[in-house]
Structure formats: structure tokens, C-alpha cells
Amino acid sequence: MQLVFATNNLNKVKEVQALIPEHITLLSLKDIGCLEDIPETQDTIEGNAIQKATYIKENYGYDCFADDTGLEVEALNGAPGVFSARYAGEQKDAQDNMNKLLNELQGKTNRAAQFKTVIALHINNTLKTFTGICEGAITNNKIGEQGFGYDPIFNPKGYHETFAEMPLSTKNSIGHRGKAVSQLVQFLNS
Known about the structure:
CATH class: Alpha Beta
CATH topology: Maf protein
Low-confidence stretches: none
CATH architecture: Alpha-Beta Complex
Mean pLDDT: 93
Strand content: 15-25%
Number of domains: 1
Structural class: alpha/beta
């Protein structure tokens, strides 16, 4: 089985490839000749995932899946949420995003947060969605060198280290993307 993973984020491809069974071949956007930026204009994480998967299905004809992920911080009324990648601006810089978030949380005692990933799958003319959530808290400082995005400031519930301190195998087993991909794989195998 071949599926297009509608992302240009090589970190996401690496994470997901480690979770997908060997009988499923992941094709990248580059593999199918999609070099344009896929629109993400929806106001929800679910909406963006569906929009990206639909774009590939309608414009390239491939069975595919797309994900969108957001970090939702309780003390900030769910922000940055759908704007997580460009929280500090259109340059989509992880360091700038983390600095802005840490700055906005200064002096706040409630640091509860959750990562939410929604995967939208277009297969056999059917659309399905899968949601993975990982609860945790925002740290006071950046800690760790692994991962990407907000990983150095996210401490998952029940763990003493941030995502950026964990091996990829641990992050995948407890993380939001891993949970959503697990549901996707279960569906594909059924």
C-alpha cells in the first residue's frame, strides 16, 4: 500500500515513518511532485488537517493523509493552538515561538498544556479523522536537544523530562502524534 503523507516537515516524516508498518510505503510531497505550499486557512486543527488531505486528493489523486498539530495552553485560553507553527510570526521559527510562549507565561502558576494532533485520511473516496492528545505542562526553561518545535518546553504528564530529552521511541509511545498514528494504523490494518 502507498500513501502520501502531506507534509514538508522532515521531522514529522521521520516520526511517522517509525510508527507505520513496513507494508505501507510513505510518499512525500516531493515524491509526487507537489512543490507548492498547501493552504492551511482553517481556524481549527481538524480543519487544517482535512484541508491539506483534501488538497492532495483533489489536485494529485493520491490516497493520502495529513496532520495538523497544536499546543494548547490552559492559561492562554488554548493558545497558540491552530497558530502554533507561526505563533511568533510568519517565519515559523521554533525558538521565537518558544520564547514568546515562555514570556507570556511569566508569573503564571497554571502551566497546564496539551499537544493535539489530528490526522485526516483520504482513502478509497472516504475521509476519516484520528485525534491524539498528550497532556502535560510548560516548563520554565528550554531543556533538551531532541525533537523539534515546542519539545524543549513541554513536559508530558507522568514524566520528569521534556519531549526534547526523550528518545524518539519514548516520545512516539506517549505522544500526541504517536497516538493519532496508532489509530490510523489500526484503521488501515482493519
